[in-house]
């Protein structure tokens, strides 16, 4: 459903992605693993239309999305949940969630938005108890849940998640990854960027390792875990 084909990207003269290819099939959670600076966030930026690639193309459901504006990529069904969550702290949880469905609100589809809100809250019941609270007063884990729930309000068929477990206590991280595992059953595939390789692979059908802007390895979680490259990607060469 998502095909990234031979994508290259540079910040000025500094290459950040070199002919990166990967795919996500319907019903899959796929992890993209690598250290700081490997190019993971840059790749998500290219897929979501925030960054223009220098070469290659991205297609989603057989339609080219590279070159589209970010809002058109969202309308095509691909939503990114950014690293650091980027919530509006002074706004309430409810208002943050409603921002995720601006397309439907603009079309005055209030009933649909109410249904989406219900679905999002069913995945993260703790948010239902905090709807009128300012988002900035939530715990780190709750803020991550809110960022994901906001992304789901746009009814994506593919969610791009940038380090959802970053900085969270292991128990909270596990809870969030548990929701990620269940998203395909709700009709939403996932491309999961993580430094937490073990956690990510435990909820994924496949994974890729990226270092220095290149995909070095791909395979099942078992294959990736058994690979010397995984150790190298995270600890550097022996
Ligand atoms: P992290 O988890 O730290 O975000 P990452 O794997 O997502 O790591 P990227 O953020 O994609 O990595 O960065 C890839 C490379 O591009 C790095 O060398 C980084 O320094 C560089 N880079 C990222 N953003 C910019 C920018 N806005 N301007 C210049 N160089 C950048």
TrEMBL record:
Q: Which Pfam families match?
A: ABC_tran (PF00005)
InterPro entries attached here?
AAA+_ATPase, ABC_transporter-like_ATP-bd, ABC_transporter-like_CS, BCAA_Transport_ATP-bd_LivF, P-loop_NTPase
Q: Which Gene Ontology molecular-function terms are recorded? A: ATP binding; ATP hydrolysis activity; branched-chain amino acid transmembrane transporter activity
SMART domains according to UniProt? AAA
Give the species.
Answer: Desulfoferula mesophila
The record's annotation in CDD domains points to:
ABC_TM1139_LivF_branched
Keywords (A to Z) from UniProt: Amino-acid transport, ATP-binding, Nucleotide-binding, Transport
Q: Please report the name of this protein according to its UniProt entry.
A: ABC transporter ATP-binding protein
Cite the ABC transporter domain residue spans from the record: 2-237
Q: Does the keyword Nucleotide-binding apply?
A: yes
Which protein family is it in? Belongs to the ABC transporter superfamily.
Q: Does the keyword Nucleotide-binding apply?
A: yes
> GO biological process: any one?
L-amino acid transport
């Amino acid at each position: 459903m998502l095909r990234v084909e031979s994508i290259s990207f540079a910040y000025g003269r500094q290459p950040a992605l070199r002919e990166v290819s990967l795919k996500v099939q319907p019903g899959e959670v796929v992890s993209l693993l690598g250290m700081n600076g490997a190019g993971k966030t840059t790749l998500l930026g290219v897929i979501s239309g925030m960054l223009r690639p220098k070469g290659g193309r991205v297609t989603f459901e057989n339609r080219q999305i590279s070159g589209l504006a970010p809002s058109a990529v969202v309308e095509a069904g691909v939503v990114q949940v950014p690293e650091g969550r980027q919530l509006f702290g002074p706004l309430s949880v409810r208002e943050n969630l409603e921002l995720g469905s601006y397309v439907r609100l603009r079309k005055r589809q209030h009933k649909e938005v109410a249904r989406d809100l219900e679905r999002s809250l069913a995945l993260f019941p703790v948010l239902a108890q905090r709807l009128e609270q300012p988002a900035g007063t939530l715990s780190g884990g709750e803020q991550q849940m809110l960022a994901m729930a906001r992304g789901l309000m746009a009814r994506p068929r593919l969610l791009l998640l940038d380090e959802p477990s970053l900085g969270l206590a292991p128990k909270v991280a596990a809870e969030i990854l548990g929701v990620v595992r269940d998203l395909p059953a709700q009709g939403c595939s996932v491309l999961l960027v993580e430094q937490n390789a073990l956690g990510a692979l435990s909820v994924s059908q496949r994974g890729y390792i990226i270092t220095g802007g290149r995909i070095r390895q791909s395979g099942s979680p078992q294959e990736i875990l058994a690979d010397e490259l995984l150790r190298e990607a995270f600890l550097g060469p022996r």
